[in-house]
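Lab manual, section 2.4: Encoding a predicted structure.

Procedure: take the sequence of the chain (329 residues), apply the prediction step described in section 2.3, and record the output as structure tokens. A sample record is shown.
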Amino acid sequence: MAGWVNAALDGLVREGVDRRALTHGLRGFEAGSAARDSRVDVASVRRLWRRAATLNPDPLLGLKIGAGLPFQASNVITILVAHSATVGASIEMLLRYQQLVSNSGGYRAVREGDTLRLTYVPTPAPVEIHRLQVESVLGTLAARRAVFGATGVRPQRMILMNGAPAPRERYEAFLGLPVTFEARAGVIFAAGDLSRPVPGADPRLLELNAAYAESLLHDQNRSETLCAQVQAVIHRTGFRTASAPAAAAELGLSVRSLQRRLNEAGVSFSLLRDETRMREAMILLTESRLSLAELALRLGYSEESAFSRAVKAWWGAGPRELRRGAESA
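Recorded output:
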């Protein structure tokens, strides 16, 4: 996941956005890049794109970043797509392994008559996804260079989210595709293109990399399941009293085994506790009218000031600023 984020970040910098202004204070970023040895928090990446929209008002920014991403940004998926037997098989590979690249959302495929619709569905998170981030994903499928090797296959139509800041014609001129606007973004492919063979596809190379992708997917799902289980225990136990020994006992693990498995997932118990608490804080700040003192107490802080410091350290803005931002959105 860090590979995709860092490639997009490099693209934003090429578009004139200051790297430090983009990443300063964001959880999981070190020296202006996403740390490769830790989980990339969905909310932090979404805040990065919101900053990008403020720092560069170009409405085509997301599409430009997506169209310009290097093939390496998609890691093993690039090889799977390039060496599948047909365009349809390439899309199946994309759908199956997309979470190896990004955990901020993914495509859902629906066959509609003589077309295939890929709709981008964001992952639920305290910070709502920005349209530029969605368009950066769509831009990889609609790039003028064929994404499916030498087939020349491109989408029939691009669907962008409602409320676009630029006229339809501007998007169409950049993409070279018809554009419509709906609640959910996505792309439309002609069903007839799905059976087109991918020139130069190597079945053996596909087999080897599919096995590798399966192992990555298995490890990721195992790690994400464990993290979700630990976070559920933290919620039930309460932020003030949650501890690694208590979580390990509830999950039927020794403390050492829990710590080892969390370390393999790139996290620690304390980080998961903080992440869980700060996500809950964001939800309560933006969706409730509880006072800051009430929020601090609910989230296990003895003083409102400690709560405010923790929120600012995690989100890069204090509780009042986050609440005002949600009210004005």
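Check your result against the sample. The first helix runs from residue 2 to 14.
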